[in-house]
Amino acid sequence: MLKGIKLRLYPNRTQQNQLEQMFGNDRFVWNQMLAMMNERYQNNKALPFLGKFKLNYLLKPLISFFEKQRFFKLTGS
Questions:
Q1: What confidence tens digit (pLDDT) does each residue in 2-26 have?
Q2: Alpha carbon distance 41, 54 (integer Å)
Q3: Staple 11 to which of 15, 41, 44, 45, CB 3.0 to 4.6 Å?
């Protein structure tokens, strides 16, 4: 049997800003990786789809690019 828990958060203004910043960072990384995958597919449609472990491997070279972005410095890892 699967069980779930519903949880409601009531963050204060500072916490809300931090959550918004983290979600924005996540969305930016997601969009960068999606653009990379789409470009890879457009260049060679015969290449196989990359799973999450291979995408994590490809993410490591992008970390230096992400560290240069000012808005990534506003939140922790």
A1: 899 999 999 999 999 989 988 988 8
A2: 15
A3: 15
